[in-house]
Amino acid sequence: MEPCVSVISLAPYSIFRINREEGTFIMPARKQHERYAKLVVSGTHKTKKDFGEGQFEWYTTPAKALAEDLIRDCSQHGAFILDGDVEPSEQRLLDEEEKLKQTYAKWIEEADGIFNRTGDVKLLTLHAREAAKALGVKRAWVSGLENMTLCEFCKGSVPYNVAKCSNCGAILNWEMARRGGLVSPEQIKIAVKKGWLQPEEEEDDRPSQAPAALPVEVGEPRVRASRK
Length: 228
Description:
The chain is α+β, with helices and mostly antiparallel strands. It has helices at residues 63-70, 90-118, 126-135, 140-143, 174-179, 185-194, and strands at 4-9, 17-20, 23-26, 37-42, 45-52, 55-61, 79-83, 148-150, 157-159, 223-227. 29% of the residues lie in helices and 22% in strands.
């Protein structure tokens, strides 16, 4: 049996979507009325590091080391790792939930300070909104963030229904990006091949569009996700 670890997240939003040589790893959001979401990372991942001019080196990353790297910047969002394909104990859940409540309280306090000084909700993060909702705290600035969402790539705040993230440049809606001329023909071909876009008739005959940054290359994921 392949060695594996379970990544547990208490957050009601996806805390990471990471593209790596080993594949694409997406931490699902905790569903409403559930206490956590789980992502199982298994196997030893073999990848190639290219140094150019035909020089490269193969290296392996065990499942646990990969999982630890994935949540390196996410532990404050209620993420932790367990050995094996297992469920967290009741005591571990209680401990991690208390830590997350303390983090949420800190985010709310920081948001209060910024809003009281500036009155500008654009300076606040969506994490503060999620924290206020999670703790049932009512604030004037919460409603001002209702039309915003998190970019699934960089976790920056962006308006709903935008084609491209203004923070990291990732394409969030490929069809809108194609209609708006935000992607090049080369990018469209890649997106169609990946299944992100439906092909259009006579697509190659469309006029050239302004070049844009190529989408992040996505490998084959070697994970399975489940929620409990």
